[in-house]
């Protein structure tokens, strides 16, 4: 069974599949030759859990090394806790902080999103100024949330013209806020796969954003949506939320996960060539729970905590993209405020806060 249109079977996304599938094997072999501490023999030997132990090489050279900060209140990012979280993000060696801006609507077919957002623009400007003072570039990433819990990819407004008229107004206001904050990045939408066929409407959104913001523009497509987007030429970067599976079992070795990345990277590079744009992983993240590598996008499964698996998945992701010229950067998901972002060894969420994954990230990003 193909995985969401990327033409890669679940078997091909594993180490064993790479041994029997071409061109996946060739891609893995070519990449492994460029990894100074990974021998081909080790790459295909199962059971070498959590080897190697050294940091990924070259992963600090990305053009944008970002961490997203998410808060679902109006002013939390400008609170003492929010500013402290920004300090913590800066300490990772990140060079970019990306503020998630949430816009809500009642159902997937609602005629229009509400104009109010979280955070409020005034709170964002305070937090962005604090981040800029720490030397961080600022990004804004627009999300539409459905109050009944439906995933945003299922949004299909009954009247697209009305919906986009309201959405363009939100984009214009946040393009203005991004300009006022001297931001470097603006993602004009996230995972709105149910609307991506409406390319004319999206091109109008992008034109509006460009009239008000002169930084880099992208759209954050879900990994199973990105190849269907037809308006990449209007943007500066292809944005992909990279939640594809990178394991076929619980607690994979680092090398298993690294090998499983290779078919996906081949697809990413092909997409970059077709779009004539470099790719930014506008979201990438793994929960610190058992089996996180098999289902990276599953944020609700009641699996036990496994911070070691998250650590290994961070290592594999950083190593995989370090030698990929068409990948311009990554934005880790996420550093949340409130109880969801407290972290620590018993936490099973996406944040690396207080977990071994943070050590991996900081070691790589803080290196010269």
What does this structure look like?
This protein has an 8-stranded parallel beta barrel, surrounded by 5 helices. Helix 6 links the parallel strand 4 and strand 5. It is globular, with a radius of gyration of 20 Å. The protein is an alpha/beta fold and 368 residues long. The N terminus is likely disordered. It has 10 helices and 9 strands. Helix 9 packs parallel to helix 10.
Short description:
Helices cover 35% and strands 17% of the residues.
Index terms:
disordered N terminus, single chain, eight-stranded parallel β-barrel, globular, 10 helices, 368 residues, alpha/beta
Count of helical regions = 10
Strand order of the largest sheet: 1-2-4-5-6-7-8-9
Mean pLDDT: 86
Largest sheet: 8 strands, parallel, barrel
**Beta strand %:** 15-25%
Secondary-structure map with pairings?
Layout: H1 15-20, H2 24-33, H3 40-43, E1 64-70, H4 80-91, E2 96-105, E3 117-118, H5 121-133, E4 137-146, H6 160-180, E5 185-190, H7 199-212, E6 216-222, E7 237-241, H8 254-275, E8 279-284, H9 307-322, E9 327-336, H10 356-365
Parallel strand pairs: 1-2, 1-9, 2-4, 4-5, 5-6, 6-7, 7-8, 8-9
Antiparallel strand pairs: 2-3
